[in-house]
Amino acid sequence: MTLPPALVRRSLDAHSAIGLVVGALMYLICLTGTLAALAESFERWEQPLIEEMQTLPDAALSQALQQYRAHRALAAGDAAPLPESIWLILPTEAIPRMHLSDGSDEWFTDRQGNFLEPPQATWTEMLRHLHIKLLLPDNIGFTLVSALGVMLLALIISGLLAHPRLFRDAFKFRRGGARRLEQADLHNRLSVWGLPFHLMIAITGAFYGLVGVLVISAAAIFYGGDHNALFEEVYGPDPVLDAPVQAVDPARAMQNLRSVAPDASPLYLVVHNIDSRAQFMEIAAALPGRLAFSEIYRFDAAGHFLGDQGLTSGPWGRQYLYSLYRIHFGYFGGYLTRVIWALLGLSLTVVSATGVNIWLARRGKGDWADHAWIGVVWGLPAALAASALASLAWQLSPEWTLAAVWLGSLGFCLWRKSLAGCRQLLQTLSGVLMIGIALWHWLSFSSWAAVGDWINVGLLIGGVVLLVMGLRRSADRTVATSSAV
To answer: What are phi and psi of 363, to 5 degrees?
Structure first.
């Protein structure tokens, strides 16, 4: 690209300023997003002994509802009102398990629909919440994360304008020389190779957090503040029924779905307004060749087909909105896509870290900022591993464990004031913890479930790599002006 020098300078200044302002949070979002691409597998890994199945008889849905009614009556009494919606999540390739949820309580079931233990994916839920809202209240967290998506988009655009030779030097990598040049080449090469992915993540991530603001604004401007009217316009209205009350028949609804959409793969069935004249059922099902998360098929209480919501065949804007979730997290195309998304997410994590490294190396001061950045970058993997082990082995709060280890790493590095020493210590600690998690999991659960095996193997490989990095002698542990990472 041929650009005016003044524009290149201003773009580089903007790129550096934005990167420094959001550096730590961007690194946190990218690393947790990398792991979140595998969140479905982590759920199974946390509870590996739950019965799994690829298919189940239609009668299991009716049995699960009967079990729920009995449990509800025992816990709250026969006169207690039932919730507005009851969800039956069906087994899929990614999560071959069935469970029922009423929005507050949840249970796994066996192949016949009998209740098992409740889901206990405590660490995975923490990981998801950390990524999408930084463990903050919903409105604050979503808005902040969406702002980081906007910042990432600004970083990408300013980075392109600040480096006219970026694509010409796509395969240039200077290793073994000055630390700043090495980090700059790594930063720029990964930025170029992952550019389409980085743009997609920035745009979809920004939208997710801003959707609340957009809904409030659009509802106030066009619908007199009526949020439901806005959602009905975008996603279509719910069916309005007034029929005699009868027992819902989810088995018949599943049978009729196979007649209406034989290629559909059911994801969940939800019963709305149960035991009322307005009750109806919805079945969400993925369709082959469609990026939209699912189509919604609607049935009355007897299981008769009422119509679909048009999420895969309606207006293109509706299809686009309903596809963003799968695109952002790579929840399409099977396990291969998830692994690719995780690797690309890891590259974006490295880009986030090396951006700050370049600035620190350019400063050449080796002061508190360098020591703090060591604690941020290498303390987070140790904190995530420690929180997983604490949650799995001792049922401790993963949120508090994560905060304690990460802040402890930051404080230790500021106190120790040794760049190479702290980096090696935290790398070693992360490696030991990851290896320890894998060994504990194998020893605790004698059954060798496939998903548990490959996650544990991944933990072992990652742990060994970090352990080797941590135990390797530093070439020069006294160079205070070297980059922190």
So the answer is: -65, -45
Residue 138: how many CA atoms within 13 Å on its side-chain side?
4
Contact 29, 131 (CB under 8 A): yes
Tokens of 13: 């200044």
Closest among 398, 393, 397, 355 to 376, alpha carbons compared: 355
Summarised one tens digit per residue, pLDDT across range 16-53 is 878 887 999 999 999 999 999 999 999 999 999 899 99
Cβ atoms of 305 and 258 within 8 Å: the answer is no
- Burial-class residue 143 by CB neighbours within 10 Å (0-12, 13-18, 19+): middle
Rounded Cα gap, residues 275 and 277, in angstroms: 7
- Residue corresponding to tokens 């030779």: 165
**Mean residue pLDDT across the chain:** 88
**pTM recorded for the entire structure:** 0.90
Q: Are 245 and 292 in contact (CB under 8 A)?
A: no
Q: What is the pLDDT of residues 275-315, one digit of tens each?
A: 999 999 999 999 998 888 999 999 999 999 999 988 888 77
Contacts of 158 (CB under 8 A, 6+ apart): 11, 12, 14, 15, 18
